[in-house]
Amino acid sequence: MARTPVTVIVPAGLADGYRLAGVHVDQAETAAAAGAVLDRLLAGEARPSVIAVHAPLLHDLGGRRQRRIAGLEGVLVVALPQGAADGEPAGDGESLRDLLGRAVGFEFTFDPDGSAR
Rounded to two decimals, what is the model's pTM? Predict the structure, then answer.
């Protein structure tokens, strides 16, 4: 079975934006719900390559799940940059591209000409 490249775990208020961008979305309103979604995704045969979790949800997961995430092989779990409360992107925070690059040691490009920005 093919792996889904990226899955995001976000509250309902953010889910539609990611769906419009073509990303697979699982909704969670609390850290406990996000943990249950993570457990389900990691237990399946078609585990995503990257799981990006709404930052407050990821930070509020318990120590057991944090240790499990730290020991994963073949799946990268990162916190989604939170942005500002008014929906504008965070000015000085790291982008998801930067977080992924730091985690795996490569610079990612997402446009056809290969430029980093």
Answer: 0.69
